[in-house]
Write a structure and sequence with these properties.
- The structure is a single chain.
- With 347 residues, this protein is of the alpha+beta class.
- The chain folds into three domains: 85 residues, Rossmann fold (3-Layer(aba) Sandwich), CATH 3.40.50; 58 residues, ATP-grasp fold, A domain (Dna Ligase, domain 1), CATH 3.30.1490.20; 168 residues, ATP-grasp fold, B domain (D-amino Acid Aminotransferase, Chain A, domain 1, 2-Layer Sandwich), CATH 3.30.470.20.
- The chain is 27% helix and 30% strand.
- It is built from eleven helices and 17 strands.
- Strands 9, 10, 11, 12, 13, 14, 15, 16 and 17 form a nine-stranded antiparallel beta sheet that branches. Strands 3-2-1-4 form a four-stranded parallel beta sheet, with helices on both faces. A four-stranded antiparallel beta sheet has the order 5-8-6-7.
- A hairpin with a 2-residue loop joins strand 11 and strand 12.
- The longest helix has 17 residues.
- The radius of gyration is 20 Å and the shape is globular.
- The protein binds adenosine-5'-diphosphate and magnesium ion (MG).
- The site of magnesium ion (MG) has 2 residues, from loops.
Length: 347
């Protein structure tokens, strides 16, 4: 039985996992390399340390029964070391595949699931010899999020003005002419045991998620296909916990898998208010071996991320019964920083 759950990472996802754990009577211990991590406000205990600080890691593992994480970019070595002492779920080998956009896309294509065309790029020559993928997006193979480390290349001429730091490895992806973006959130409990939420429609601005809504305005065919693909991915990874798969839909209604997040996901925040069981509670249920309860939608819903300064307008606002405001209690307001979100349900 899990009484003390360790969570690596202290952002909003960690915070929302803590809140869900509390409801299940499970104590949370957060381990974060940010002393001011917002999850400090939501966990039972907080340990500040670098992700390679062996002493702090030992302290953390001594206090917990099981370890999970809120973001996928923790050094795999750290996860493996922890896993020798206390079980880590999802399994660290999954992070190894997904931390790198190239191995992630190779993995997906091996499953015969379509992604956009792509190629690994190590220098300017390799970039110039793949003009067939331009217009495209150049992304660092590791450590990107919210569009960080990404360059849009509309034309070969752009290469002159972009000052690309080739000490890092990149992936060049052909630009998909987007009609829509959706995500599917699935919680896998074990062999042939999973719960899936209906596809969520997402809108991004400047590569940052702006809004999410259910139902997604998509055909039944696309809905079924996206759910099938998410199930195949989760099965193939032998995944335990909540996983999110992001997709593109192009103008001809082709579905492309964009990326896999081996964790709870921003687009699933609305499940806290729209469903009987949220993506966060389901993650904890799955990893802690608790009962699997059938997910049921209670309301259609939409979620809006409150980014940067925007949060200030909401902190003293009165909300309707259909509105749910979440403040991540981040110490500092920064441009492009996700500060909170507002979910509105349809009553
Ligand atoms: P992140 O890890 O930052 O979420 P993504 O690869 O999901 O990175 O890119 C963020 C957003 O940028 C996507 O949701 C989409 O709106 C846009 N984008 C990324 N890659 C492509 C592409 N190949 N074609 C069209 N749009 C893209
Ligand atoms: Mg993404």
């Amino acid at each position: 039985m899990v009484e003390n759950l360790g969570i690596i990472g202290g952002g909003q996802l960690g915070s929302l996992l803590c809140t869900a754990a509390k409801k299940l009577n499970i104590k949370t211990i957060i381990f974060s390399d940010d002393e001011n991590a917002p999850a400090r406000n939501f966990c039972n205990e907080f340990i500040f340390g670098e992700y390679d600080d062996q002493e702090k890691i030992n302290l953390f593992t001594s206090k917990v029964d099981l370890v999970t994480f809120e973001f996928e970019n923790i050094p795999v070595e750290t996860l493996k070391l922890i896993n020798e002492v206390k079980k880590v779920l999802p399994k660290p080998r999954i992070n190894k595949i997904i931390q790198n956009r190239l191995s992630e896309k190779d993995f997906v294509n091996k499953l015969n699931i379509r992604t956009t065309s792509y190629v690994g790029v190590k220098n300017e020559n390799e970039l110039r010899s793949n003009v067939n993928l331009i217009p495209g997006i150049l992304k660092t193979t590791t450590l990107g999020y919210d569009g960080k480390g990404q360059f849009k290349i509309n034309d070969v001429k752009d290469l002159e003005r972009l000052n690309i730091d080739f000490s890092k490895d990149y992936i060049l992806e052909k630009l998909v002419k987007l009609k829509q973006e959706i995500s599917v959130i699935i919680t896998r409990f074990g062999h042939q045991k999973f719960e899936i939420y209906e596809p969520i429609e997402n809108h991004h601005e400047d590569q940052i998620l702006r809004t999410s809504k259910i139902p997604a305005n998509i055909s039944e065919k696309i809905s079924n296909l996206s759910i099938d693909h998410a199930t195949i991915v989760a099965d193939e990874l032998d995944y335990i916990g909540t996983l999110c798969v992001e997709y593109f839909i192009d103008k001809n209604d082709n579905l492309y898998l964009n990326e896999i997040a081996p964790r709870v996901h921003n687009s699933g925040h609305l499940t806290i208010n729209s469903h009987n069981i949220s993506q966060f509670e389901n993650h904890i249920r799955a990893i802690c071996g608790l009962e699997k309860i059938k997910v049921k939608k209670l309301h259609d819903a939409n979620m809006k991320n409150l980014i940067g300064d925007e949060i200030s307008n909401y902190r003293n606002k009165n909300f309707k019964d259909s509105e749910f405001f979440f403040d991540y209690l981040k110490k500092e307001i920064k441009n492009n920083r996700k500060m909170g979100h507002l979910t509105t349900i349809k009553l």
